[in-house]
Amino acid sequence: MSNPLEGLKPELVWKYFAEISKIPRGSKNEKKISDYIVETAKKLGLEAKRDKVLNVLVRKPASQGRENVPMVCLQGHLDMVCEKNKDKVHNFEKDPLELVVNGNYLMANGTTLGADNGIAVATNLALMEDKSAVHGPLEFLFTIDEETGLTGANNLQPGFVASKILMNLDSEEEGELYVGCSGGKDTTGTWKTAYESIDLKYAPALVKVKGLKGGHSGLEIDKGRGNSLKLLNRVLIELDKLGVRVSTLEGGNKSNAIPREAEAVVYVPNKKLNDASAVVSQYNSILREELSTVEPDLAILIEEVKGKKKGKVLKKTIQKKILQTLSALPHGVMKMSADIRGLVETSTNVAIIKTDAKGVTLITSQRSSVASEIDEIVHTVASILQLGGADTETSDGYPGWKPNMDSKILKIARETYKDLTGKKPEVKAIHAGLECGIIGEKYPGIDMVSFGPTLEGVHSPDEKMHIDTVEKFWNFLLAILKNIK
What we know:
Blueprint: H1 11-20, H2 31-43, E1 47-50, E2 56-60, E3 72-77, E4 99-102, E5 105-108, H3 115-129, E6 138-143, H4 151-154, E7 165-168, E8 176-181, E9 183-192, E10 195-198, E11 202-210, H5 228-240, E12 245-251, E13 262-269, H6 273-290, E14 299-304, E15 311-314, H7 316-328, E16 332-336, E17 344-356, E18 359-368, H8 371-387, E19 391-394, H9 408-421, E20 426-430, H10 436-442, E21 447-450, E22 455-456, E23 464-466, H11 467-483
Helix pairs in contact: 1-3, 5-6, 5-7, 9-11
């Protein structure tokens, strides 16, 4: 298979991005990519160590004459979000990503690209190899499981990282420097429910919501995109008026992604089949009109389920509670920051619903750059779930990263960017969880900044990386390292 990245600049970065795209590295499946980092370090003659959870730290000596410059750590995470279009055949545990260059965009064919945070991994590997770069002593920190629990950062031990300066390479807009991030928690509700049999007066059908953009539940939460669970629920509430019974509810895959697809297996009274089709068609029109600007590909369908006459459905009381709870739960931006223009301060995402023999589970996620506001929105969501009869559980979550506008590395980065481009970079906080929050707790006083090339649609099969920004990002990183005294 030819390499679509061949000839792109900087060559070393693209070489390694192509290499790691062949290695499965979904969250909690990082053994092979962790091994690859260690093996590559050894081939390059560099010191490497690995902890019990598979975080890797590589050290590279300073360039000649730079031995007394402060040590700097460059950090990114090894795992990626594994999302694919429903009709795409791809096994994330063994299949390589299919890279596609489309003009200035790099994408993957029908799946997430893994540029979040594969670009940091590739950049670190390139700098490990590059003998022409001018820098002081370097550490390269590769953490695991950032996307589904921040497990790697949470398990960092004292002394594993020696640097007092850290550059996180997990931001997604070239020309912007991040100095703060939100913290977050997940809140889960479970209806432990019994089912009842349905008789032959009902016909099985599948109601589906598809075609939504989805995206990162922090970075895209303010874009007004559709939430497949909320949209499906609106249709089911109308179908409930016809006596339609719900058997299963499925939708969403990750708590940190806005759900793109959802479906429900339902049983429709035989006499109401035409009415049910009319309701779905009507809501397809209504919701497409509501979201026409942001979700042009939205489709809501009802299909006959062939060969399945008998089945189990949720008890009526449970069905009503679940539908009412989904309707009552907030989704989206709760509050904008009064201090940083354009920054979402607090949000909540109705993320995943799934059905099994034990019942129905609904997973939501809450974010805020203000710790007390996380507690408040978690309390709100948990209260609604409890009022709806669900048992609730809240995760431990992760801390935010408080901005330090007097940061020395921030000052160097700002001046370097202006010298390179003639423009001032934007200094921002991000409504997403960066590992910097945890790393700052693990290593008090560490001076941090975060930046990266431009990515779009992360956590969805629409994920794309702007190719031209990768070279700008690389040159910027090299210039910062050269300017640290």
